[in-house]
Amino acid sequence: MATDSNEVNDSSEVLEAPEEGTVPAGTATAEAKTAVATAAPKPTTGKMSAYEMIRAFEAGQLKSGLPEIYVGDTVKVGVRIREGTKERVQPYEGVVIAKRHGGMNETITVRRIFQGIGVERVFMLHSPQVASVTVERRGKVRRAKLFYLRDRVGKATRVKQRFDR
Fold it and tell me: What is the pTM of this model?
């Protein structure tokens, strides 16, 4: 019996390429089985624990593209200021004298001298009030906290510049 090219022969099997991440039966090795097992996503029941929900929310709020900031660096922080319906960005430049926490709660303490008076501000790096952070110059220090700068006046408050970072 002759078949037309349009008809499909029921006895023939159609061979398909295996899906990505799967191994054809009988050819699986121990390595391939573990690779497939680890690549498969975990089944979700639709409920997340409170810890997972907080972690997922915080991961979405983290800013990307922040520079590496070290204690002793001179930084310029752009702070969003809202006056009525208007919003502007005001720069605040000073020396980082402390870093605290990590992740979502990471803060830096920036000290500057304004009209002969030392002013310190604490900035949460991932806050929406912080528009930008740029490192103006790197400082060469040997301490984790530079609180001793509070007692110094004038040229004694200068920090040596570091050129290797």
Answer: 0.69
